[in-house]
Specification:
There is one protein chain. The protein has 116 residues and is an all-alpha fold. Helix content is 77%, strand content 0%. The two termini are 28 Å apart. 28% of the residues are buried.
Length: 116
């Protein structure tokens, strides 16, 4: 999993070029949406609902890939598989890794483009 970067800088730069002034709105929307999805994963775990866990992880995975966060997307794929297999025993550890990676991605996205 660690072979994937936190952010795909080239994909983000292309997104920034395409989105222009709306890029910051896109980033803030992604961050807010991601926090909601993490809450959804927590809720699905608390209620032992593997189907909801899988669906939430799947949609989170898609938004991570679209924004250029491949490592986080990979972790979401892992979570999705646990939900699909209805084996949530390892899900708390995966969710912890998702939360940690999201914190790193959020920090890097907030600083993206400001380093230049």
């Amino acid at each position: 999993m660690n072979d994937k970067p936190h952010l795909d800088v080239e994909a983000l730069a292309e997104l920034q070029d395409v989105m222009e002034d709306e890029f910051d709105v896109l980033i803030q929307t992604y961050l807010a949406d991601s926090r909601s999805r993490i809450d959804g994963l927590r809720e699905a775990l608390a209620t032992a609902d593997p189907e909801h866990f899988a669906k939430t992880a799947h949609s989170f995975k898609g938004s991570c890939i679209n924004i250029g966060a491949p490592r986080l997307g990979g972790l979401c794929f892992e979570a999705e598989q646990l939900g699909k297999d209805a084996t949530l025993e390892q899900a708390p550890a995966v969710l912890e890794r998702i939360e940690a990676e999201f914190s790193e991605v959020a920090r890097r996205l907030q600083n993206f483009g400001q380093e230049a």
